[in-house]
Amino acid sequence: MVDRLANSEANSKRISVVEGCFGAAGQPLAIPGRVLIGEGVLTKLCRKKPKARQFFLFNDILVYGNIVLQKKKYNKQHIIPLESITIDTVPDEGELRNGWLIKTPTKSFAVYAATATEKSEWMNHIGKCVQELLQKSGKAPAGEHAAVWVPDSEAAVCMRCQKVKFTPVSRRHHCRKCGFVVCGPCSEKKYLLPSQSSKPVRVCQFCYGQLVAGGRSDTVCGRAGDFRDVSDEDDDDDDSSD
């Protein structure tokens, strides 16, 4: 089916519509052989709370963005190569149901569908596309993935020292290695994780110790304050207010 649609006029029009919905700020999506498999709204588990995001599945990439105007306008476009994706189901918990993890070396997160059937369809289509891409390229699946961040709401106190209580003054931070919510004193160090950033990123003391023990000294950095840090308000890059 993908081969049949690859160069069809209907597929080209569908992709053109998606490009138009992202506007001038979005990256071009039309390339030879690319097919739009499906689209839909999924709830993404963001740092502060779950938020609706529009997702588009192509045969080689997964694209998502913030919904500005339902089915007409989106912004903050994110493009993830399918070859880098691994998916795992997430058990239902409370109101968060029908979910799965989208894991990549750069960023990992959980999404939730409206129904079990929708979840199954999304996971099946993503899985088949990834499998076909890896078979064609001869590449092995990604062996390492970024940690899924623990939502702020699940940590009233630092998940490492278990002492510091979070307040408007004592802010939450996330370790980029383990995804734990940690306090400032427990995340003063930075370490270069090349799969996530070209610059050193914030890590907790525990992960820092493990990384130093198993890594090279030239990837080790000092206190977090010694570098220009990406603001933790911007940690969920879908929305700077997260």
What does this structure look like?
There is one protein chain. The strands form three sheets. This protein has a seven-stranded antiparallel beta sheet with strand order 4-3-2-1-7-6-5. The chain has a three-stranded antiparallel beta sheet with strand order 11-10-12. The chain has a two-stranded antiparallel sheet with strand order 8-9. With 242 residues, it is α+β, with helices and mostly antiparallel strands. The C terminus is likely disordered. The chain is built from four helices and twelve strands; from the N terminus they run H-H-E-E-E-E-E-E-E-H-E-E-E-E-H-E. 21% of the residues lie in helices and 27% in strands.
H/E series, N to C?
A: HHEEEEEEEHEEEEHE
Query: Into which percentage range does the β-strand content fall?
Result: 25-35%
Structural class: alpha+beta
Q: How many individual β-strands?
A: 12
Total helix count? 4
Give the biggest sheet: 7 strands, antiparallel
